[in-house]
Amino acid sequence: MKYICTLFFVFIVTSSFNTPFSTTKNSSEKVVYDVVFREGLAGTYEKWKTNKNTVNYYYTYTDRGRGPEFSEELRFNKNGFISSQTVTGVNYLKDSIQEFFKSEKHSATWLNPKGEKKGAFNGDALYFRYDGSPAIYEILARLLMAAEDQKVKLFPIGEVELVENLPITLSNNTEVKLLMVKGLDMNPTYLWMIGNEMVAKISGNLHVIRADLKELRLEMKGIQDAIEDKYLARLTKKLSHTLEDVLIKNVNIFTPQGTILNNQDVLVNGDRITAINRSDDHEIGSEIQVINGQGKTLLPGMFDMHTHNTKFRGMLHVAGGVTSVRDLANNKQLKKLSNQFNTNEIIGPRIVTFGGIIDGDGPYANQRNVVSSVEEGLAEIQEYKELGYQQIKLYSSIRPKWVAPLTKRAHELEMRVSGHIPAFMTATQAINQGYDEIQHMNMVFLNFLSDTIDTRTPLRHTMSAYHGVDLNLKSKEYLDFVELLKTKNIRIDPTVSIFENMFVSVKGEPSPTYVKMIDRLPLLNQRDYYSGGLPKSGEKIARYKGSFNKMLAVVYDLHQKGIEIVPGTDGLPGFLYHRELELYAQAGISTSDVLQLATIKSAEMTGVSASYGTIEVGKMADLILVDGNPLEDMSAIRNVEWTMKGGTLFYAKEVYQAMGIKHFK
After folding, report:
1. pLDDT score for 156
2. CA distance 437 to 420
3. How far is C-alpha 320 from the chain's CA centre?
4. How many angstroms from the chain centroid is the CA of residue 61?
5. How many Cβ atoms from other residues are within 10 Å of residue 569's Cβ?
6. Fewest CB within a 10 Å sphere: which of 135, 159, 478, 520?
């Protein structure tokens, strides 16, 4: 599917404010930045003046057929705040964007995905667009550095603070400053500056760097990584509460059988459960810390079975009650991060399954661990095995003829194989050639459409969104497929919550996937969930919603027929996991079964049930305390008061507060 974006560049006259070109020799020349995504050159960011006071920007990058493309124009008032802004183009999912902000005298009018609004504006706050180029970060940095208190008000609400301004000399003697900014996002924002010009913004897999400095990008990333690690280590020390002897008194516990056992006392010594008894009024020694669990539910730490971990995501997992995860595609340095989580150097879950990704080369390659032949793929599998990985994940650009030899080798090394279904192949074919598990419910749905769909592209989403509603769960084709799943003992990793956001959400309205917690999030995170998912209008609105409902029906049907379902997210840790569990319950699976999937069943599937997954004497004390009873109302799983992991207690309220997130209370 092709998307055409017409870009409009409008010439506007700005005030005398010094626009962001003061460090260039000729400010009328275009300043060009590389956009690097997953270590591959993926796009460009450009800024230039077309006359004395007009500033234009262009920004684009591609990610397997997805990716934004924006043109933007800005002007400023005398204090350096935006007085006029226009953004046009398409967002990451290729939906059209039309956004503007315009102020005059003491008022402003703005249009964004939430609609058009008007309000009082005195020119002393920064309007922060919903979608657009990195220009806004450069403007914010300039304002923060100039502010006496190093704070900038956002319009219409919010405030951002500059908490670090670190002078750094790079290896080629270039002098830069690294700014650490808090208030926009759950995690700090890092901006690299030379004078008043932003020369780089490095965030996760997405790096924007001025072209003349591109050879220094990895050096800058290494410096930033070290600073981030020190910040997270300080935060971890502050948020960690070391345990010795703890009695959780008069609490209701979730049993291995999926029931609730009321009024129990659970004794924990260090990182192990040492006793479980019916609660009574016997005297408790002063050396034992007592936690009142009356009216609350104690559950084993939960398992998110589809994650892609970073050092910043760990806190969200733990605050949300997730203590164990499968990582299904990451870099080959994942063991280092896992060790940081396990030793509590950085807050995070224990990674119980390491899944190594392999993709084929081509225009839609995953840009990580890409191979161009079967031989290279076999070598990758061997390397993952030597690194201690237990699973191989094949991706969409793998050639269908490679699947059989790759899965054969993985199985010889006692590794499971899962993944996307490669382009021009069906799920049935992949299973018959060795797949043990399928990631994502859309890949199941595509099995009933065609083996000619290029699943490397967004067609894997739009085709399942449009045609999924027509799937007949009583048809011979579907029933034969279910029988194949049973015969081959195939596991399904549905990640239905991400499809709810894609298929059901409407632009300008809070996504139903996140509506229960959106108001708790920092500004930019809130805005992520008003974008509307896949572009949709007319009959597509009903068809896409119908397809999502059919996905829930398939989840229920597969569970009822004994197919292993694993609860995973592939998205926002913690919060999205809660929604995944809610959706399983909404599909019709009993809350008892859902909670067992989240705990003991996942522990069994990952081979760690001897130590984790249930609340029993002798097992490790990976525990969460929930305000309410999720067996009666699955949404109570959102009300995590604290999480216990590895002999350390983390209060959810404290962890969330450190990330700018409000607690459920």
Report:
1. 87
2. 9
3. 14
4. 19
5. 26
6. 159
